[in-house]
Amino acid sequence: MSKSVLLKSSLAKKYWMALTGLFLCTFLIGHLLGNLQLFAGGEEGKRAFNEYGYFMSHNIFIKILSYVTYISILFHAIDGFALAYQNKKARPVNYAYNKPSANSSWASRSMALLGSAILIFICTHMANFWWKAKYSSTPMPLHTYMVYPPMTQNAEGEEMYLTIKGSAVPKSGVVVKNGTHLFLDTKAIEEQINEIKRTNPMQELPDVSKMNSIPELGEGYKDLHSLTVSFFGHNKEKEGFRANEYALVAVILYTLSMIVLGFHLWHGFSSAFQSLGMRHPKYTPLIKGLGRAFAVVVPAAFASIPIFLYLTK
Ligand code: HEM
User: Fold this and answer.
1) Are residues 157 and 192 in the same domain?
2) Ligand 1, atom 13: nearest CA belongs to which residue?
3) Whose CA is nearest to atom 38 of ligand 1?
């Protein structure tokens, strides 16, 4: 290939890498904001996270964005490998005098290596969360939460609750699992209500006749919260999942991966603007500063989530 053709093809690759890279930075912000909800404790925090997960997998606009994300990851990685290969071929022997640290940072010289490590992280991460949530043959546990406080006790002295299992809308009722979908079981509700009426006639009860007409009860929330908490948490019984005995290993690997991501972004963020031809004596230093802040804050915030879950769950 002639030198000018090579140059043109590497410029095109850099351009696409810059566009996909910046798009992936916006994905990181969105993903981080969603995941920060894992810091919220209690039943409300769990519900908020699972509602968010439900929204993310059912909103058509978000679904399109997800496909753009997958394609961007693929394009970014393929172009990155091709560019690294092209550069290596163009300069197969190192210069006799080669002191790269004099005019480039370690991060900028190691982008392909850092990128490969991030790709491995993304593949294992998606296998552990995304695949389990969407495609795994083992059905995802569904979110169960209490709607009413304990109202009464049955003959065995056990507390009775009126609960919803995995409902998309927190309305009263008992929902039973049928395959991966949930259906409102009015018979079970009636049985519970009759029992409550018998033991506690003063208790205010929901109107069962209206429950049949709640269409949102067709599909439940997948319990993404418990999936995540039991992946990084180590010392409590998690509903529906076994606690992860390798939680500490997971937390360490996630933290190391976020350090790698930080180095990749340290150079990559501002380099993307350069590849798009945005060079300006005043704004370039500003973009560089912003990129470095992004490279520290975003991976650190991501890493804080597994560490927090490990220490508290
Ligand atoms: C360390 C904290 C993180 C946690 C707790 C976390 C959690 C999750 C969860 C629960 C999902 C599944 C969502 C679903 O399928 O509905 C997911 C998907 C995903 N995560 Fe993460 N994540 C973290 C960090 C990251 C990082 C740093 C990256 C990228 C470098 C990343 C890339 C992805 C991708 C690409 C998906 C698929 C998104 C989609 O389907 O639209 N995650 N993550």
Assistant:
1) yes
2) 130
3) 66
